[in-house]
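Hi support team,

I've been running sequence recovery on a batch of backbones for a student project. Most finish fine, but this one hangs at about 90% for roughly twenty minutes before it completes. I'm not sure whether the input is malformed or the queue is just slow. I've pasted the structure tokens below so you can try to reproduce it. Let me know if you need the job ID as well.

Thanks,
M.K.
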């Protein structure tokens, strides 16, 4: 039995999803010879540490009842640097201004000899090359499947299943909020403001939806794809971005009459990075509805490969994080 110790840094929706997925899969993983033990949890108000493994069900209940997991005075950085463990799961909120606190957490993890798994887009959209180099210099594994596309295994597909192919270009829909808004506007002929309010009430859109509707979230994800797959050193500021706020029901109706839908499409290839609304044929693989995400990858050997699935959600995102944890457990 291989014991793998890890900490969860950030215990919001995604961090709790990771804890739930480990509880759900713990016995099945033991049958595969892997014993996952969470030895540290940190949220914005405190932390819990147990070198023998935290009772995750208890931690989840305490978070629900008290709004925090606090049992000790250690900070996230203390947990990362001082606790004996193999993997840091960094799932603090995305900050695209300076990448903090995720950037410092990941750097501290690599400097302390810990592998890193993350869903945090901010540090990767700003400092991808620096983080990758820091991991490599310390002989560590850096995995970030959950940063783009939620449950969709884009990086696993490209770097493993499509190894040997040259990736020519990638296009797709990488933000479920905007896709939901455009889908509802087109289906119900409703104005943008009405559908946005609906999305906020359903929890699909944030109270401040700027990152989503202005295309910034999509741009961050596109940059991570470009840097990881094409070896670029771009930041989200290098993306030509147009959001969806000026799209009218009349424009969507006109597109529909001609068998098109309007989608916020991300494109990377030949050094070009763009996020903008596009006309997409109604039967095209990119014409997915609701909150779905989709990525279409053009290769030299395999041709075009298109994958679609849930681009957000606590358990869905945790699915990708758990996949990365298990990759490290089996390959480190």
């Amino acid at each position: 039995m291989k014991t793998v110790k890890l900490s969860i840094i950030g215990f919001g929706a995604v961090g709790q999803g990771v804890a739930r997925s480990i509880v759900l899969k713990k016995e099945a993983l033991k049958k595969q010879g892997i014993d996952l033990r969470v030895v540290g949890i940190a949220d914005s108000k405190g932390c819990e540490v147990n070198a023998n493994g935290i009772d995750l069900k208890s931690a989840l209940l305490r978070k629900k009842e008290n709004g925090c997991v606090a049992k000790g005075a250690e900070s996230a950085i203390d947990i990362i640097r001082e606790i004996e463990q193999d993997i840091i799961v960094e799932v603090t909120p995305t900050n695209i201004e300076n990448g903090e606190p995720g950037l410092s957490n990941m750097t501290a993890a690599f400097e302390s000899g810990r592998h890193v798994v993350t869903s945090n887009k901010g540090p990767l959209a700003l400092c991808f090359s620096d983080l990758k180099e820091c991991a490599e210099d310390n002989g560590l594994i850096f995995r970030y499947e959950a940063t783009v596309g939620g449950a969709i295994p884009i990086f696993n597909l490209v770097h493993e299943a499509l190894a040997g192919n040259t990736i020519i270009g990638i296009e797709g829909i990488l933000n479920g909020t905007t896709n939901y808004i455009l889908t509802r506007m087109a289906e119900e002929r409703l104005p943008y403001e009405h559908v946005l309010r609906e999305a906020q009430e359903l929890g699909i859109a944030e109270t401040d939806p700027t990152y989503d509707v202005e295309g910034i979230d999509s741009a961050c994800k596109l940059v991570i794809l470009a840097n990881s797959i094409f070896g670029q050193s771009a930041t989200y500021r290098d993306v030509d971005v147009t959001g969806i706020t000026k799209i009218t029901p009349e424009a969507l109706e006109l597109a529909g009459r001609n068998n098109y839908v309007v989608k916020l499409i991300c494109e990377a290839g030949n050094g070009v990075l763009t996020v903008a609304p596009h006309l997409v044929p109604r039967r095209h693989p990119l014409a997915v509805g609701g909150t779905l995400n989709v990525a279409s990858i053009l290769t030299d050997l395999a041709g075009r490969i298109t994958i679609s699935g849930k681009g957000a959600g606590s358990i869905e995102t945790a699915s990708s994080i758990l996949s990365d944890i298990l990759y490290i457990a089996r390959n480190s």
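--
Follow-up from support: It reproduced on our side and the slowdown came from queue contention, not your input. The two ends are 15 Å apart (CA to CA). No action needed from you.
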